[in-house]
Amino acid sequence: MTRRFRTYCRLLVPALVLVSAAASGQVVAPSGPLSADPARAALVPKQTPAALQRTAALALPFFDDFTSPLEGRPDPQKWNVHGGAYVSNRLALAPPSRGAATLDGLKANGQSYSGNISVSYGTLDSLVSQPIDLSGLSTSSGVFLSFAWQAGSIGSAPNLNTSSTPVKLELFLKNTSNTWVRAWSYNSQRVRTGFRQQLIDLNNAQYLHGTFQFMFVATGSASDNSDNFSIDYVVLDRNRSGVLDTDTVFVDVATGAGLVNGNPSGASAAPCGASRPCRCGSSTRPRRPLVSSTPRWA
User: Mapping DSSP to helix (H, G, I), strand (E, B) and coil, where does residue 43 land?
Assistant: First the structure.
């Protein structure tokens, strides 16, 4: 092999990788946090929020793996349009299947929540379900909510959660009194995690009503997207076993794969546990809501 040919290969192969990534819609992992992402503004629907919202509560089962839309605001038939969460295949690391909803410090229009304040911590994006009809169900109906979550992104791990710089992901449930009850939370350890399954027990009369909703809320740096969390494979249904290792195994045919180190992880993908019991959960038992509160952003 001649020196000229070796030089040619060293130049050509990286170029082909970049061209392939561009053709598949992938992007190079960011080198640092973004204080703005103007490209998101172009993905905001032209319709008014009122025109996008559902007018009737959803029936079970509720399911979203965020494969559609390909990028932009979550499906307004399932989610509130005001939360700021961003669906894409370019932020989450190796999601169960193509696409995930990411909550970070950038609003739907790509601008930071803090505006011109360089260092600011507070409430970031939220992901709020549309009302779901759980009326007529009993505490023996086996109603559970499961989801896969990840701390961090392809860019970095979130900052460490402290009293002065809170960095966390929380889940709230709306009860019969229209009060948001905190059901689960994760405080950042400054570690980028893989996707982990969580199972939440809803077999409580206060949640079994006709306009039930659940809400994910991220807290962290409001100046950029350094603190982000991703959600995928959200399932709410009845007649579930409530056992994490078996109740988060789903039959799925995914059309694409998530990212691994900024690159496609394969030609196709299946959710965690599709071929074996998922053992990536952070709990071996379903969680019951523990703390009641009414967030100011609700």
Answer: helix
Cα separation, 125 vs 1, whole angstroms: 55
Structure tokens at 230: 């991703």
Alpha helix positions (H), 69-161: none
pTM score: 0.76
Whose tokens are 């399911």? That residue is: 63
C-alpha distance from residue 2 to each of 10, 11, 13, 198 (Å) = 13, 15, 17, 56
Q: What is the mean pLDDT of each run of 10 residues along the chain (298 residues)?
A: 50 41 45 82 68 81 93 93 92 92 93 84 97 97 98 93 95 98 98 96 98 98 94 97 73 50 46 40 48 38
Give all domains of the chain, ordered by start, each with its CATH number.
Answer: 57-292 (2.60.120.260)
Q: Are 113 and 105 a contacting pair, CB within 8 Å?
A: yes
Q: Which amino acid does the sequence have at 178?
A: N
Q: Which amino acid is at 121?
A: Y
The two three-digit tokens of residue 239, written as one number? 């007649």
Distances from the Cα of 239 to the Cα of 92, 105, 177, 253, 265, angstroms: 30, 37, 25, 23, 33
d(C-alpha 14, C-alpha 96), whole Å? 28
DSSP symbol at 84? B
